[in-house]
């Protein structure tokens, strides 16, 4: 139901040969760069400074340093289990670092009280890998949830806002408002999750594997949506993914994690030009 | 041999620390829960919804439990009492044991099996599908949103369900007394009243036995909700973890209900029985 791609581009073949894929990614990157010239670097809204974290004896992060400014989309890449999602959990203060600082809008979130953390989280929107929509609530109630919790908006205004964001993520409100999450397709669930994340207009958006488990066409739709969020809402976005093609489409900057460290940090173009054997191996 | 002893000692120590940590986490949750109960925001709609889930939807099994418990009590005691020609006292036995003990405990155990398991499973499923994390990321305290409504609903509804179970059990005893033992309704009901009046009254009309019987479900409701939600929030390991958490919640709550029942009875006897 209304699960069509937004963009006019052709869907990418999932099993295209490596060379063809690399050419296509580069071409797409060029188009993206021509269409949206990079903004000058502003002050960083989210910043990780020399962050270390371990779970018991398992060292997950070994001194990660990363910054994201307003209007930037940073894609964190890496293999499975290298600590990509952990970075998001640190930004949300669902985890505390063993060492180092996690700064959000200039505040070290390790040092703020529990109540302040709840308020700080209202400034962020998170899209989970599995969407994490509330099973017992319909689409309207899911999307309206942050507004109901944190604002005094009247029901009519909330209803209008929910319709507005559902339209923004290319869903037809009348078709989906009363549906339960179990009745939605994977792509629709992701879009409802994005609608819920942006409904209260947070300046920071976090995406955990937003395209995992989706077909190439729906993946492209979600990528287009993330680009639209940047161009129209100018949000600061951190996207965790292992999908190189998606990262090339949406990122203004990429960070590749290996063994708990960022081994590459730069624009997607720089990443594709990088000669480091691990980076090359990851991209191929 | 020595290494085996060291290994056993290490395992014992780890198990001890694991239990100590769980107990600490449990009481930390209870402390947060109690603090959240007396501060805004309150989720009234959720409380009413949980009262329906815990109370109204448990009514059927509670009525059945009460009915058959009262009938069995009357039947079993009749066998012994008939020997001494004391069947007229059956109402005393059914009334006292139901109101003081069996009503609260059996209701708590039945509701734990139904609603407590449901709480642990629902919150556990939310935990493993990141819905609990989603609440946190939206600046919502999961304890306040998920645990407090269930806790308040449980401590409101358990006493109500216990009263229903008590009444139905006394009625079950009445059925047996009238149908099988040829006692009159008046004789049976007077016998029930006499046993309740024996312990005395508070405010001249509330039987002390009833107060004892209602203090317990209050505590059992709190234990059931806190324990079930505790295991739900600790769930990990996917759907298998949800099943494990549910089982642990039901077993632990049942044991706690029986253990707390003993200590509460001791306290209430000291307080009320001269």
Overall description:
The complex is a heterodimer of chains A (284) and B (274). Chain A is of the alpha/beta class. Chain A contains 11 helices and 10 strands. In chain A, helix 4 crosses helix 5, helix 4 (139-150) runs parallel beside helix 7 and helix 5 (155-168) packs across helix 7. The N and C termini of chain B lie far apart (59 Å). Chain B has one domain (42-272). Chain B is 84% helix and 1% strand.
Quick tags:
heterodimer, A: 284 residues, alpha/beta, 6-stranded mixed sheet, 4-stranded antiparallel sheet, 11 helices, 10 strands, 40% helix, globular, disordered N terminus, B: 274 residues, mainly alpha, two-stranded antiparallel ribbon, 9 helices
Question: What is the compact description of this entry?
Answer:
Chain A is α/β, with parallel strands linked by helices and 284 residues long.
Which pair of chains forms the biggest interface, and how many residues does each contribute? A-B, 21 and 13 residues
**Strands of the largest sheet of chain B, in order across it?**
1-2
What is the mean predicted local confidence, pLDDT of chain B?
Answer: 91
- Largest sheet entry of chain A: 6 strands, mixed
**Main beta sheet of chain B:** 2 strands, antiparallel
Order of helices and strands of chain A: HEEEHEEHEHHHHEHEHEEHH
């Amino acid at each position: 139901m209304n699960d069509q791609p937004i963009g006019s581009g052709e869907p990418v073949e999932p099993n295209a040969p490596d060379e063809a894929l690399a050419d296509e990614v580069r071409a797409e990157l060029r188009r993206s760069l021509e269409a949206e010239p990079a903004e000058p670097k502003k002050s960083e809204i989210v910043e990780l400074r020399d962050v270390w974290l371990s779970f018991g004896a398992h060292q997950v992060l070994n001194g990660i340093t990363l910054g994201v400014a307003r209007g930037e989309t940073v894609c964190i890449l890496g293999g499975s289990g290298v600590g990509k999602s952990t970075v998001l959990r640190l930004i949300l203060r669902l985890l505390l670092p063993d060492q180092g600082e996690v700064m959000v809008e200039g505040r070290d979130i390790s040092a703020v009280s529990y109540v302040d953390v709840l308020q700080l989280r209202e400034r962020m929107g998170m899209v989970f890998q599995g969407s994490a929509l509330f099973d017992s609530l319909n689409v309207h109630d899911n999307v309206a949830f942050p507004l109901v919790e944190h604002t005094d908006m009247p029901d009519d205004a909330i209803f209008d806002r929910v319709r507005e964001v559902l339209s923004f993520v290319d869903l037809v409100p009348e078709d989906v408002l009363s549906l339960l999450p179990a009745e939605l397709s994977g792509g629709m669930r992701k879009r409802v999750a994005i609608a819920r994340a942006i409904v209260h207009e947070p300046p920071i958006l976090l995406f955990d594997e937003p395209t995992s488990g989706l077909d190439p066409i729906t993946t492209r739709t979600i990528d287009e949506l993330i680009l639209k969020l940047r161009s129209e809402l100018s949000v600061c976005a951190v996207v965790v993914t292992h999908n190189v093609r998606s990262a090339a489409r949406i990122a203004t900057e990429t960070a590749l994690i290996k063994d708990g460290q960022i081994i590459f940090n730069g624009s997607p173009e720089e990443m594709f030009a990088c000669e480091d054997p691990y980076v090359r191996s990851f991209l191929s | 041999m020595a290494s085996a002893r060291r290994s056993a000692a290490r395992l014992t120590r780890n198990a001890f620390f694991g239990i100590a940590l769980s107990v600490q986490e449990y009481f930390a949750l209870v402390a947060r829960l109690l603090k959240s109960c007396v501060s805004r925001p309150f989720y009234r709609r959720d409380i009413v919804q949980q009262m329906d889930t815990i109370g109204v939807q448990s009514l059927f099994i509670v009525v059945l439990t009460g009915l058959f418990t009262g009938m069995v009590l009357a039947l079993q005691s009749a066998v012994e009492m008939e020997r001494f020609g004391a069947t007229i006292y059956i109402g005393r036995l059914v009334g006292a044991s139901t109101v003081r003990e069996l009503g609260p405990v059996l209701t708590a155990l039945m509701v734990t099996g139904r609603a407590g398991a449901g709480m642990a499973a629902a919150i556990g499923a939310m935990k493993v599908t990141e819905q609990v994390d989603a609440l946190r990321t939206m600046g919502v305290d999961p304890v306040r949103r998920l645990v407090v409504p269930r806790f308040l609903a449980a401590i409101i509804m358990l006493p109500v369900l216990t009263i229903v179970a008590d009444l139905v059990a006394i009625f079950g005893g009445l059925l047996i007394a009238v149908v099988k033992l040829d006692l009159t309704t008046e004789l049976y009901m007077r016998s029930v009243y006499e046993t309740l009046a024996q312990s005395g009254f508070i405010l001249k009309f509330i039987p002390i036995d009833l107060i004892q019987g209602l203090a317990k479900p209050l505590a059992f409701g709190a234990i059931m909700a806190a324990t079930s939600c505790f295991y739900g929030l600790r769930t990990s390991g996917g759907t298998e973890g949800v099943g494990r958490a549910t089982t642990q919640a039901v077993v632990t709550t049942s044991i706690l209900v029986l253990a707390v029942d003993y200590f509460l009875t001791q306290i209430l006897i000291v307080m009320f029985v001269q």
